[in-house]
Amino acid sequence: MATLSFSVNGEVRALKLDTRTTLLDALREHLHLTGTKKGCDHGQCGACTVIVGGQRINSCLTLAVMHEGESVTTIEGLGTPEHMHPMQAAFVRHDGFQCGYCTPGQICSAVAVLDEIKAGIPSHVTGDLNAAPHLTNTELRERMSGNICRCGAYSNIAEAITEVAGRPA
Amino acid sequence: MKSFTYEKVNSAEAAASAAASNSNAKFIAGGTNLLDLMKLEIETPSHLIDVNGLGFDKIEPAPDGGLRIGALVRNTTLAADARIRRDYGLLSRALLAGASGQLRNKATTAGNLLQRTRCPYFYDTNQPCNKRSPGSGCAAIGGVTRQHAVIGASDACIATHPSDMAIAMRALDATVQTVRPDGSTRDIPIADLHRLPGDTPHIETTLTSGELITSVTLPKPVGGTHIYRKVRDRASYAFALVSVGAIVQRDGTGRVAVGGVAHKPWRVEAAEAEMPRGAKAVAARLLEGARPTKENAFKLSLVERTLGAVLTEAKG
Amino acid sequence: MKFDTPATTNPIDQLKVIGHATSRIDGPLKTTGRATYAYEWHDRATNPAYGYIVGSAIAKGRIASMDLSRAKAAPGVIAIVTSENAGKLGKGNYNTAKLLGGPEIDHYHQAVAVVVAETFEQARSAAQLVKVDYTATKGSFDLWAGRDGAAKPPGRGDNQPDTTVGDFSGAFASAPVQLDATYTTPDQAHAMMEPHASMAAWEGDKLTLWTSNQMIAWTTGDVAKTLGLPKENVRLISPFIGGGFGGKLFLRADAVLAALGARAANRPVKVAMQRPLMFNNTTHRPATIQRIRIGANRDGKITAIGHESWSGNLPEGRPETAVNQTRLLYAGENRMTAMRLAMLDLPEGNAMRAPGEAPGMMALEIAMDEMAERLGIDPVEFRARNDTQVDPEHPNRPFSQRQLVECMRIGAERFGWSKRHAEPGKQRDGRWLVGMGVAAAFRNNLLMKSGARVRLDGQGRVTVETDMTDIGTGSYTIIAQTAAEMMGVPLEKVVVRLGDSSFPVSAGSGGQFGANNSTSGVYAACVKLREAVAQKLGFNSADAAFVDGQVSSGNRSAPLGQAASDGELTAEDSIEYGDLAKTHQQSTFGAHFVELGVDVATAEIRIRRMLAVCAAGRILNPKTARSQVIGAMTMGVGAALMEELAVDKRSGFFVNHDLAGYEVPVHADIPHQDTIFLDETDPMSSPMKAKGIAELGICGVAAALANAIYNATGIRVRDYPITLDKLLDHMPDA
């Protein structure tokens, strides 16, 4: 067992945990923040994506105890049904989801992707490595590829993100 | 996942001594491969040494004009570094072709090098696997082998190394710096880090017990056109069927390393002499002695054709 | 309500709410992480124990012995359930293989034990300590090897294994233009994002299961049958389902083992099947071998069409009905279809999105493309020439609606089909060989009894309760739209409660029958509620109008809620169907257009544009309908380009049993997708005049891709998935 104190959606939380507990299971089973989903538990689907210290990661492939003192944002921290984050609202407007299970991960990823492009981080499809990447449909699709949606909402998701990014879909 | 104790260390010495005092300890940094394998009990450490506090997270100029990359530098950070993008584009490209944005944010430089194979028989603990359980046999041989090695394999193992980054590191002639539990340090040329499977596929690198990678150093830039071409069935978030990393100079000379074909990043320096004569000549030499299966024989022509496309692209 | 005469004008035709592109009413819950899925009911069971499944290490044979001693002694372990201590278990009506194996083993990763512990980490760890010794026996794992010994399966109702019309072999032999080709489709996995998951809690001999299931009534019955309980003692709750695609039609091991684990542990237990177990433990779409023969006159009229399909399954399993569409889609006087079933010891084959038609159209629509080329006729035109407005096997049965040709022609125009080079391999864009492909889409419309209950309260709020499920299909929203339309209230005044076995039995979600049937059931209940409201208000129910929250009749008007001012009004009814589906063939139609590039060096295939045109009755909500279609198109891309459960034919299992090995499309594979819905209402289908669309969208997509690859490269691949290794040797020099 180990102890852990970290910030989740702006609130300091203290837990006593089996060292084997992943960040994902700490959120879901201990803090009852079940918005973050377990799709594969092996880093192969992206449903568990959360934002830690401003960066998106797969919460299934990291131990909770490795996040002492860190700051975690989950889908619950982005917005509520009454006060949705602009990305959440855009997903609803563009029907960027169906079953909803990959959706929290898609939205956390999408929020982080826009920050990554702003920060000038290149991607596999960036044409010129020495220039700032542009926000294109191809860039978004490549960067979102770590979030699988078996319902196949991709086309609508790309439109939702594009709208939030302030460009016409 | 078996129970383990967990300790966070703040110095290389502490890491070394923790490793020395527990032969079943493992270092953990990004954890993206280790935890995956621990969940399946393919890896069963009884003690985890969290090395994230060691400060090996900088990219600094090396004395000979190259760059020294801390072992803990995340894949995203490394790929986005302006110096890497400008002078070692091959490395940036290879990193960005691998995994997903989420995984690259966590995965480290050293961890990427030490990834284990994605052979599905290695991942299925019901199946015999000499890598997972030495002497048990290899279920992949005679099984489903589309993804497997075509060269350098053995009767004990036909697994491939999955890393994209390592292909670039190999072509760039990187060296790996380590510290051992007794405090001694050494430089390992990247060519000598990964092993072929032989009779001991469970021994994947030349690192000794408790040896910790502290940095990876790139020699000074060699110029040329840098291209990393990864070929896969789906357009992203997939391991390579084959990949070709190349640095091509104006006169047509250069370097080539290939992924998805062997148990280690595959580079044959003698084959590079053929580069001015084109892809067919290079591939023939590079893949000399290949022993593909019926299912993965396509990789031979795929390497040649991909290399051809790379050389054409390099000419502009 | 019995629906046995074609629908006439009814309140749905007002189209004040129905037919509008409406955002999902469950959207804010799903996008903020507040929708509760099966494993997440923390408020219903405060201290559940965790179950972890042990899967068989062999495909066929027996458990020789099990040693549970180390697992039992592991920290936190509460109970271990195996076939030895589970008590007598039945087998569900909808299951082929047992859900808890032992001592006989029927397939790889069949569950053989569940380990229940205080925490997930303890259960997972202890599960590794369960030691099982097996005696493996030889099994059959190769469809090709089993083909010759494949038997004629028993027929089921209207679906017989063989059909013949006229003299197929004579007509085929004498046809001036012929095609005789064999196609294969591989085993495929549903690979929905939410794993099969359940939480079970017992109160005495009453069981509550929070689970993830498409068909509440089927599964409630099968839980009862499997556990030997009266059906009334079983309650299923499944309001949100993280994808199903047919994989969650049935009771599966997670639910049975959660229930058995909870009984053994004497407390609530939850079980989520670990992803690497799903591919072999659960059902999959079976592989097929399909031989198609088409004979035609030089004018392009088909004179003979034959389609045979071989598939495999476990004993008592059923065939993949891949010849279904060929019985209905094209004209031709001489016809034959046949299905044969080989016994295989692979995991259980069963329904996956558009069973039958999805793999059948993958083959038939390549064959049509090949035939068009042999005839020198444009593939759109060739299909038009062989259109039929009647069931070609039973010409006295007209189609209720059939706009296949319209779909193809409108799609061709919108897509710019005329720019396609008929000769393959002629269009180059840099390193890409570019091609276009087309295929018809076809899927039958199924009618199923479906019930609902509606309640009206004093505030004029309408609550709908039905055991219908929303697996991402948009059921919540279209049901709310239906109730709002019927009761004359805004959408905000409707509450929809789904997925609970205590609610009236619905059609459930499957076979693209959910939308039309479940909303028709709600329609029926609302008709009853309208009568009750009118009666309560003293109105003549026949002419009462329900508009804007008011009920009016003649010059009298009252707020809707007034009818419930002294207590809630409730009405319950079902839609039941007469013979309209027998007198009229009800099907949905479409056309898929694809443009893609094939890398001239590597033969990597990347899609550029996709369009689907659909004619599928009234579109209840164009926004959610579009989602169903683009989702199906995406799954069709997977089927065409990457999805294949790779069989180890020595040991009998799917080797690539996780989401890294079984590749499904990612964002980067899918371009912007266009969809067009033709204006159509089908009065034969239901009072909603709607039909299904969720499966139509997958039928034909893969063939459109295959045809586009041919158009780009001149390489005809008849074995799915079309991966680059199948093209490489035939590619031109880069």
From TrEMBL, chain B:
<dbReference type="InterPro" id="IPR016167">
    <property type="entry name" value="FAD-bd_PCMH_sub1"/>
</dbReference>
<keyword id="KW-0274">FAD</keyword>
<dbReference type="InterPro" id="IPR002346">
    <property type="entry name" value="Mopterin_DH_FAD-bd"/>
</dbReference>
<keyword id="KW-0285">Flavoprotein</keyword>
<dbReference type="InterPro" id="IPR051312">
    <property type="entry name" value="Diverse_Substr_Oxidored"/>
</dbReference>
<protein>
    <submittedName>
        <fullName>Molybdopterin dehydrogenase</fullName>
    </submittedName>
</protein>
<dbReference type="InterPro" id="IPR036318">
    <property type="entry name" value="FAD-bd_PCMH-like_sf"/>
</dbReference>
<dbReference type="GO" id="GO:0071949">
    <property type="term" value="F:FAD binding"/>
</dbReference>
<dbReference type="InterPro" id="IPR036683">
    <property type="entry name" value="CO_DH_flav_C_dom_sf"/>
</dbReference>
<dbReference type="InterPro" id="IPR016166">
    <property type="entry name" value="FAD-bd_PCMH"/>
</dbReference>
<dbReference type="InterPro" id="IPR016169">
    <property type="entry name" value="FAD-bd_PCMH_sub2"/>
</dbReference>
<feature type="domain" description="FAD-binding PCMH-type">
    <location>
        <begin position="1"/>
        <end position="223"/>
    </location>
</feature>
<dbReference type="GO" id="GO:0016491">
    <property type="term" value="F:oxidoreductase activity"/>
</dbReference>
<dbReference type="Pfam" id="PF00941">
    <property type="entry name" value="FAD_binding_5"/>
</dbReference>
<dbReference type="InterPro" id="IPR005107">
    <property type="entry name" value="CO_DH_flav_C"/>
</dbReference>
From TrEMBL, chain C:
<dbReference type="Pfam" id="PF20256">
    <property type="entry name" value="MoCoBD_2"/>
</dbReference>
<dbReference type="InterPro" id="IPR046867">
    <property type="entry name" value="AldOxase/xan_DH_MoCoBD2"/>
</dbReference>
<dbReference type="InterPro" id="IPR000674">
    <property type="entry name" value="Ald_Oxase/Xan_DH_a/b"/>
</dbReference>
<feature type="domain" description="Aldehyde oxidase/xanthine dehydrogenase a/b hammerhead">
    <location>
        <begin position="32"/>
        <end position="138"/>
    </location>
</feature>
<dbReference type="InterPro" id="IPR016208">
    <property type="entry name" value="Ald_Oxase/xanthine_DH-like"/>
</dbReference>
<dbReference type="InterPro" id="IPR037165">
    <property type="entry name" value="AldOxase/xan_DH_Mopterin-bd_sf"/>
</dbReference>
<protein>
    <submittedName>
        <fullName>Xanthine dehydrogenase</fullName>
    </submittedName>
</protein>
<dbReference type="InterPro" id="IPR008274">
    <property type="entry name" value="AldOxase/xan_DH_MoCoBD1"/>
</dbReference>
<dbReference type="Pfam" id="PF02738">
    <property type="entry name" value="MoCoBD_1"/>
</dbReference>
<dbReference type="InterPro" id="IPR049648">
    <property type="entry name" value="PaoC-like"/>
</dbReference>
<dbReference type="InterPro" id="IPR036856">
    <property type="entry name" value="Ald_Oxase/Xan_DH_a/b_sf"/>
</dbReference>
<dbReference type="GO" id="GO:0005506">
    <property type="term" value="F:iron ion binding"/>
</dbReference>
<dbReference type="GO" id="GO:0016491">
    <property type="term" value="F:oxidoreductase activity"/>
</dbReference>
<dbReference type="Pfam" id="PF01315">
    <property type="entry name" value="Ald_Xan_dh_C"/>
</dbReference>
